[in-house]
Design brief:
mainly alpha, 124 residues
Amino acid sequence: MKQILLVFVGGGFGSIARYLIGKYLNNPENGIPYGTFTSNILGSLLIGIFLGLAIKNNAFSQQQTLLLVTGFCGGFTTFSTFAYENHVFLKNGDFTSFAFYTIASFIVAFLAVFAGIYLAKIIT
């Protein structure tokens, strides 16, 4: 039960942080989802840092990893919103934005995870 509570609390804080970033960065006028992109990239970087530290130094307990990685980062990042925003691009016939957003999201998110793991190695 404690594990579920940790994921719940972390996910709540992550979701609130994602909401606030989306509120201030998503652009309703042109439909560019900068907030979702930022949350997904920053969340990928944080996952890399947290797991890099956990693996390298046993810096986090299993409970802390559940709170930070599964909970916070899981609530902070959002694949479902990313998928919906791409649906809107396709529905509107905006194939350029669809392609750019999709490719950039995948490439930058992967690079952010690797950068996070690298940062975790040099931090300690």
